[in-house]
TrEMBL record:
Name of the protein in its database record: Copper-containing oxidoreductase signal peptide protein
Organism the protein comes from: Jeongeupia chitinilytica
UniProt membrane topology term: Lipid-anchor
Coiled coil: none
Main location as per UniProt: membrane
Subcellular location as annotated: Cell outer membrane
Positions of transmembrane segments: none
Taxonomic path: Bacteria, Pseudomonadati, Pseudomonadota, Betaproteobacteria, Neisseriales
N-terminal signal peptide: 1-19
Entries under Gene3D superfamilies matching the protein: Cupredoxins - blue copper proteins
Amino acid sequence: MKSRVLAMLAALAISPAFASGSHAGGHDSFGQPGRAPDVTRTVKVRTLDTMKFEFEPAVGKIRKGETIRFVVSNPGQLTHEFAIGDAASQQAHAQMMQKMPGMQHDGDPGTVSLAPGQSKTLIWKFDRAVTGGIILACHVAGHYEAGMHTKVDLK
């Protein structure tokens, strides 16, 4: 029993890093947390209960080195999240969310969890080359599968 509890605690301790695609040194394979003075543009994101994201203005292509402020709001009745990542990190995030469906992302700078009516800001610097583009996703149970993800080219 004691070893099972220790294993669970260890899994919880590493889960934010695993879910965000981090590796040794705390750097993400698809960028890093940005700083407000370096923001090059702001994109408003609405997480919709129709399992879509609404962007204003459209995200379009992201330039390598660009720092974007995402102002994310949840006007609906369901809990949502907004996660930034490449394909590998989003797959890892999805697997972790399946194991821990109620997981919150307070320590993950690339993901925000939003209760109905909540808004949060996420600033991200896209300073690393990625294969296959950037994926913006919600991994609340069933949301990604219902279409709540968007792929964006990183140039």
